[in-house]
Fold this sequence. Notes:
This protein has 10 helices and 10 strands. It is α/β, with parallel strands linked by helices and about 260 residues long. It has helices at about 30-45, 65-70, 75-95, 110-115, 145-165, 170-175, 185-200, 205-215, 220-235, 240-250; strands at about 5-10, 15-20, 50-55, 60, 100-105, 105-110, 120-125, 130, 165-170, 180. It is globular, with a radius of gyration of 19 Å. α1 (about 30-45) packs parallel to α3 (about 75-95). A hairpin with a 2-residue loop joins β1 (about 5-10) and β2 (about 15-20). The mean pLDDT is about 95. Ligand T3D binds near residues 24, 62, 64, 110 and 138. Ligand T3D binds next to α2, α3 and β6.
Amino acid sequence: MTDGLRVEVDGPVATLTLDRPEALNALTVPLKTALLAALAELGADRAVRALILTGAGHAFCAGQDLAERATPDAAPLEVELRERYNPIVRAMRAIDQPIVAAINGVAAGAGASLAFAADVRIAATDARFILAFGRIGLVPDSGATWTLPRLVGPAWAAELALVGDPVDAETAARIGLVSRVVPAEDLLAEARRIAVTLAAGAPVAVAATKHALDAAWSRTLDESLDAEAELQGRLGQSADHAEGLAAFRDKRAPSFEGR
Ligand code: T3D
């Protein structure tokens, strides 16, 4: 039995594919364990500068595997969240590399939450989001109560979380849940184009931007201004900043080393 995760590293971009298409890439313990391990390993690898998260087949991810949940030895829900789902979401936000979610089909339950926890979300035209938790008597989890209102505001967050109707890709783009929608056949190429662009950025600045955007949710404007000044002071001393200036002067593409 495989763990259901495919990891492919191509230059500075790692692609993580949830690969259980027969169950719409639903999340089992082996898949969650493998995903967490991959995030830890790739997050520590300085040669990897951007990640893509996608699903095999026609779905992105249908959330928790409900067949596994029905087995007698399934962990209690709280344990499953604390020991597997929450660490995955924390790892997605903690690693320095940006994550591009390429949402190739339905993203339901915790599958939607994983998409929400990425840095950039792009969707295929036939993608849809379903906060399926309410249908089975649960609350949105894996960070969705935190990420969703921040992505789309309180009105749409309540619509998705409480009403629970599927949201199609076009609507998702209109409400800010995804930043762009592309034909299904172009999705991975577009995700890779974005990931390669991110990977070509100055890694320390990219990481600082990712973490500063997260931190801003709990900061005042004054605190953000202070944090930006402190970060800019440090980055202004970096070799990558000098390289960026030199590349501008020489009219060439910069080559950043993460120093
Ligand atoms: O540990 C914990 O439990 C706590 C954590 C909870 C986090 C959560 O994610 S809770 C939410 C769990 N997910 C769901 O409730 C979604 C269940 N799935 C659906 O509602 C629908 O499948 C979809 C709306 C996602 C897609 O509908 P549709 O019509 O496109 O596909 P389908 O025919 O329903 O599904 C196709 C196959 O995938 C089918 O298998 P079969 O009959 O062909 O052998 C179906 O059973 C399977 N499948 C879909 N979702 C899951 C799944 N198998 C296991 N787990 C699933 N979540």
